[in-house]
Specification:
This protein is of the alpha/beta class. It has two domains: 122 residues, Rossmann fold; 45 residues, no CATH class. Helices cover 47% and strands 13% of the residues. It has seven helices and five strands, in the order βαβαβαββαααα. A five-stranded parallel sheet has the order 2-1-3-4-5, with helices on both faces. Helix 5 runs parallel beside helix 7. The two termini are 31 Å apart. The mean pLDDT is 77.
């Protein structure tokens, strides 16, 4: 899965440490902002930075927001990105705090810490869990579109028969 890692810029060093762990599990990280150095004159390049971040979110399947940091003095760019990801119908996961109403969007999944995130990301390397994750992402009829249908069809076709049986068991209504 292709993942955009987000947090407040002041927490960048923490996510730089998380990126190789996410990639080692088998996922790709698109967050080029993790390679940027803090600039006192960021306003001079704000348009370039925002365009690059939106491009990276667009290129991702999942938006993963780290809210384990101190929010004192936060400027809110990570919340703009969260709204953009929700509007772009990305899979949205949040680790840590949920400090505003948009963190409680109906399709958002919460984790108390990074250990829980790593466990869930590990499962997503198995096609049946990725399939179910996409189903959870699009659980309203209005959300179904060609991209979604194509992604599910591709995942299904790439599965072994055993993986398909496990998927059916995972999505079957509980008796």
């Amino acid at each position: 899965m292709i993942i955009y890692l987000a947090t407040r810029f002041e927490n960048q060093k923490r996510l730089i440490k998380q990126r190789p762990k996410v990639e080692a599990i088998g996922h790709k990280v698109t967050s080029r902002w993790l390679n940027d150095e803090a600039e006192d004159c960021w306003r001079d390049n704000a348009k370039k930075y925002s365009e690059k971040d939106f491009e990276d979110i667009d290129a991702s399947d999942m938006f993963l927001l780290d809210m384990t940091c101190d929010l004192e003095g936060a400027k809110g760019g990570h919340f703009v990105e969260l709204g953009y990801a929700i509007k772009g119908k990305k899979i949205v996961w949040i680790v840590g705090k949920q400090p505003n109403v948009f963190c409680y969007y109906k399709k958002t999944r919460f984790f108390k810490d990074w250990d829980e995130v790593y466990e869930a990301l590990e499962k997503l390397t198995h096609p049946e869990y990725e399939y179910c994750c996409w189903l959870g992402k699009f659980n309203d009829e209005d959300d179904v579109n060609d991209e979604f249908a194509d992604r599910l069809e591709t995942l299904w076709n790439e599965m072994t028969e055993e993986e398909r049986q496990r998927t059916k068991a995972l999505v079957a209504p509980k008796a």
